[in-house]
Amino acid sequence: MYHPFFGLQEPAFAIAVNPRYLYMSQQHREALAHLLFGLRGGGFVQLTGEVGTGKTTIIRCLLEQLPSDTDIALILNPMASVPELLSTICDELGARYISDDDTSVKTLTDALYDRLLDNHGRGRKTVLLIDEAQSLSAEALEQIRLLTNLETHTEKLLNIILVGQPELCDLLAQPSLRQLAQRITARFHLNPLSREETAAYIQHRLQVAGLASGSTLIPEDIQTEVHRFSGGIPRLINIICERMLLGAYGQNRNVIDRELFRQARREITGEPASDRPSTTAAPTPKRARPAWLASAIAGFAGITLGALLFGGLGNELPWQATPEPEPTVPKLSAASPSVASEVPPTNITAPDATGSVDTDSEAMPNTDPPALPERPWPRKLDDALRHLADHFSLSVPTTGSPCTESPEPGHACGRRMLTTWNELIELDRPGVLTLITPERKLAYIPLLGLNDQQALTWLEGRPQTVDWADVAQLWTGEFHHFWFRPAGFDGGLSPGERGPAVRWLAEQFAELDSEAEPLSRDRYNQPLQARVEIFQRAEGLTPDGLFGENTLNQLARRLGLDPGLLPIAEAP
Fold first, then answer.
1. Structural domain contains residue 261
2. Do 447 and 504 lie in a common domain?
3. CB neighbourhood size of 44 (10 A)
């Protein structure tokens, strides 16, 4: 294989599982601490995260840290019926029952109760861990809840860990399951790696594989591209890095460059040979997975948790996706909004928490666009963003890039891929549109306002209104914008966390509610979580109590920290 060519002792991003490559980011360690803390109190513990974010890594570490006096039942296929689920739990815990075709739920439940009482009498604890819990039916979850009714005066006899994708939060939000939701003593949502964590993850794997100290195989700018492509999902980081190294080996090149990255990206996503814009920014939210990522998820469906738990790191899985064919790129017109170039982003609704902006977009329409109107469109993204920030008096650095990288509060840069200007109107956020000129050069429009026919932009030092038809067919679908980021905010807050972002959040709600004292000083406690859930319901968001980027964006808009599009009078 390629590894000797790069001075490695073994493939750094191979699909074979290997526990030596375990990488625990800060949030992975925090998630593990939440689970361990939750198990002390009994009841339910919840861990959620998108596909490939490292949930299995957390589970593996949890199992390794469980005391020796703990019995655990692992449920890997929760889609079975209630009797089958209960019988599997009995089998895992060694609970004896008479097995036949007519074994009732009561018989299985009684057997489990007997086993739990026996374990308690011998001083042993019992844990039930269910992976892919979002696949459980409401009936099965209610039956599992009933298993926790057996308790002593001081403790529950069964601790239950529910692990699943973000859809699990929606499932538990159903009114019929409110009794179970109230018994969750600890919950943590695992976000993808940040840009810095992605770089550390790549270097960690290369060093474990034997890369010489001080050597650079994947430069910093390519690590940034990898983060944009993968959205910080470890599984996808492995895949793109493996492809890049194989490509470099095949071309006898010992350093990864942008050309090798683009080639690897095309092989994974099924893009045609012509360069297209880099369209990834952050992890895909639920219900918004692109086709190529959905195919990848389907390819992993046959991998069981048991094989991962006892074989190695859970984010080292084979790539089995069949690339989706690329759609053609129809033209946009003011009269008939249509779908623009749809390429595989990893997030269509959430801004990039890293604050990074892709200034190397490579979009190429499939058809020749009409002549660009004689207007001095900005040719540099930073210039267009600075015009935007100046117009709305946003807090951005006065020198260098307008995209803040400071830990202090300020406006970071986000990036989305949209399909129609109707989405821009619905988004109601000023930003910068990316154009491709007839000369195949990039141009940028600071977008200040919008209606069905016209756009208010910044040209020649002043706001000007232009017909949407002038720019529609040149727009790549790429949209850059600012979003307010409070100090210490790194993608999301969950119960138990501390820091300046928690303090800022509590103070903002105190101001909104006209309260003299905030609900918390610096800890994300239960009252603050409940207030977040109330705000999420009012804004039409999933009331999971997790203060993520979508909730932050809505709150910033309510506080006037993020401006909306300016109104434009309809043309007569």
1. yes
2. no
3. 26
Specify whether 422 is located in the same domain as 529. no
296 inside domain: no
Q: What is the pLDDT of residue 293?
A: 43
CA distances (Å), origin 327, targets 271, 324, 330, 337, 415: 10, 9, 9, 17, 22
Let me know: does 261 contact 226? Beta carbons within 8 Å: yes
Per DSSP, helices labelled H in 183-312 are: 195-208, 220-230, 234-250, 258-269, 291-299, 305-309
Structurally, the chain folds into a number of domains equal to: 4
> Amino acid identity, residue 415?
R
Q: Are residues 170 and 203 in the same domain?
A: no
Q: Taking the CA of residue 279 as centre, how many other CA atoms within 13 Å lie in the half-sphere pointing to its CB?
A: 26
Asked whether residue 480 falls in the same domain as residue 506, the answer is no
User: Is residue 447 domain-shared with residue 512, that is, in the same domain?
Assistant: no
Residues 6+ apart with CB under 8 A from 280: 228, 229, 230, 231, 344, 345, 346, 347
CB atoms within 10 A of CB 483: 22
What residue numbers bound the domain in which 521 lies? 492-559
User: Would you say residue 345 lies in a domain?
Assistant: no
Please check the confidence at residue 363 and state whether its pLDDT lies above 50.
no
Asked whether 23 and 204 are in contact (CB, 8 A), the reply is yes
pLDDT in tens, 393-438: 777 777 777 776 666 777 888 888 887 777 887 788 899 999 887 7
Same domain, 198 and 99: no
Determine contact, residues 74/127, Cβ cutoff 8 Å: no
**Structure-block tokens of residue 193:** 């790696």
What are the contacts of 172-177 at 24+ separation with CB within 8 A?
172/46, 172/141, 173/542, 173/543, 173/544, 174/138, 176/138, 176/142, 177/138, 177/141, 177/142, 177/145
Q: Is residue 467 part of a domain?
A: yes
- Domain identity same for 398 and 466: yes
pTM of the model: 0.48
Q: Are residues 186 and 199 in the same domain?
A: no
- How many distinct helices (H) and strands (E) make up the chain? 19, 13
